[in-house]
## 1
Amino acid sequence: MGSAAAARLTKPTHHRGFSLLELLVVIGIIVLLMGILLPVVGNVRKSARSTACLANLQQWGASFQMYLASNHGKTMSDAGDWMADRRWWEWLGAYNGNVRASLLCPEALQRRDDLPPFGGGHFINRGSAQAAWAMEAPNGDAVGSYGFNHWIYQPNTRRNPNPYFRYPLKDASVIPILGDCSQPYALPIGPDVVPTSLIDPNQIGIGAYCLDRHRMAVNIVFFDGHAEHVTLAGLWKLKWARNSRPTDVVLP
């Protein structure tokens, strides 16, 4: 082998490192990708939490259907003083495998402590779009994210009978039982105004459900047992009471 060929074989190979400009370009690409991916990951997580919330409500809907089947198609009775009677989760708890867990939407797990007690000591505080309500109950305090439509009850008095549904029901697929709500009960009866805040509504009607909890929507379970994602404006299209009428609203 000639000396020139041997020199080529033994010549050391020099590896050139990244220049500062190249490093800055790589870092810039990584930052750009993170900026694109983080919102996507956040949206996926929110979608997963909304799906888990919908599953909770589907479970309560099934519990309600089992209650109806066990009670000859009749719902729970309104004792006149609904604050002193059993709560809806106590009525349906026998048909629900995990009451405490299924009372909470994954987007509103923690109770809020920034409000004074109201409701004559029965309510500890109301919830919001991101916080659960807390309530004193006969069988122990409860924390939850869902509210029951009071007009589903069977009235046992003649007091204000018009909003209550009469059974057997028609249009069961558009009559809400319960859903994402800032308090454990609501009395939706038109005309209900749109709340000024979609994060912390202080209302007892449809506005109590009008929470920006699932990207300008909430989850609702209906009398026929199905649960679905309902836009906030769509809440005013549902049949909350016997005398409800669909209404167009403008959200803040």
## 2
Amino acid sequence: MKKQYLDKIAEAYYKLLLKIDWEDPIFMNGIREGLNKFLSNAYLKSYPTHKYLKGDFYSTNAKKQIESGNVKGLIFEHMVPKSEYIQKPCEKIAEKKDEQLTIDFIKDLLYKYWWIAIVTKEENALLMKNKMPSDWDQANIHARYDAEKIELIPVKNVLFP
């Protein structure tokens, strides 16, 4: 089920990337924030469930908070930083005239790296920001959490049963 949602997001992201005038610096300055938020907004706004119920994994503390009805101090966190491992590769190809960006390329990155963890604010503060560990194998999506000994529990949730 999650794959179907990611497919739709990949298609919309593809359309957006093809319409951008990458050579116009004023245009790029104006669109940059929206471009950075596009994937997350598409994911969050497309489905009528609270964002803290859209995690793929939950820390033990975050899960307890949600079960008690308290979502204060929780963080919706990309397990693999989306900017570095999804956006930058897609944008790099989209802005080149000699390579062709494909929906399948975007889908592959989303399937591989679009994993959401719900953690507490305190746990989030421990994590390496915006990058994976230098010895990352490009496969272990838990690497940043493992480094800080934050256990993540896979949880089937309302959006993706």
## 3
Amino acid sequence: MLYLIALAAFVATFLGGVCALWLRDRLHLVLGFSAGAIIGVAFFDLLPEALELSAPMYESSVVTAVIALGFIVYLGLDRFLFAHGHTVDALHNHEHHHHHDDHVAQIAQSERGVFGAGSLSLHSFLDGIAIGLAFQVSGAVGIVVATAVLIHDFSDGINTVSLILTNGGTRKQAYRWLTLDALAPVAGIAAASFITVPTETLGIVLALFCGFFLYIGASELLPESYHSHPKALTTVMTVLGMVTMYMAITFAGI
């Protein structure tokens, strides 16, 4: 059963990314949907799970503080670690090293995409661990958790490709990160058989990723989706992404 679920997780993630690549000419719509989907995952999946798993040991105020910490950590990394290329470009805008500075700025932008895709891949790895640990509890619990993960694995593939492409990455890089993201839950399922994670600790980890995802969706994907395109349709796609994730997660929880 676990082998089939691992295969399904790989296929679902990879298909989502391939669809994003096929629709590159309409990437603003994909980005709009991706922004809504990733924000929806944060609000409707990660937040409730973090609160529920952490409840025996941590107050809800602690969990929300960790979410805010995740948002701030990602904000700091994005603004100070990956923004240096833009700063260099601004400082030397009128100098003869302008082309070199453009190259530095492109590298910095690419690093932002890599960090975002890497964060999604790590989340997918934790998803795999969650599936494996859930099956250690019981087959019924494992099926419910696996269903929830598979439903948003498709969006994870879209989000991974979107982050790479919107930050100046190539199709080859997008495929590379998509493959890594698709393999991540498989690796997580395998790793779960060797580790035991306290549920309270897993809840705090999910809270941290909730903050990451809120920043990625609201500050990365959402602005890019309507930067130079009609705002009405992209807004509809964002709302559709959130509604889709709400319906999917609600259905999976039945």
## 4
Amino acid sequence: MKKTLSYRLFRLGGIPRKLRPLLEAEGLRVADEGLSGRLVMGRVRGPGRRHYGRVEGFSGFLVVTGKRVMAYSYAKRQINIGLDDPRLAEIYVRLTSPEWLAISFEASTFREGWSGVMEFRFRTDKAPRFHEVLVAAGASQGRAPSA
């Protein structure tokens, strides 16, 4: 899969050099960087924020190790949850096509004072593998239910 332009030019959306040894020590199951993606927020509310039908594009990475699931958009951590965390069952994964993986969840599960469904869509040729590994780790299949 072709990497984003911002990744090819500036390594935006790449795994940080300081983080890579930690992730490798945890045992990489599947990883991809320089992914193009979209953050879709429908009726998401947080302290001082309201998003209705907002869609943002990003360049990022997605990693599943023997201990955690981690996703960044640009240089901002969006998902970082241990595979032993019971909230993993509240993360929903689905394949929208063979090269698009969607990860959705209710914002209040991970951010106090927030509500609404957030969905990250990653374009990667490893989407079926990510889906397989995440479901085996305990993630739910489908789309997060809206309140």
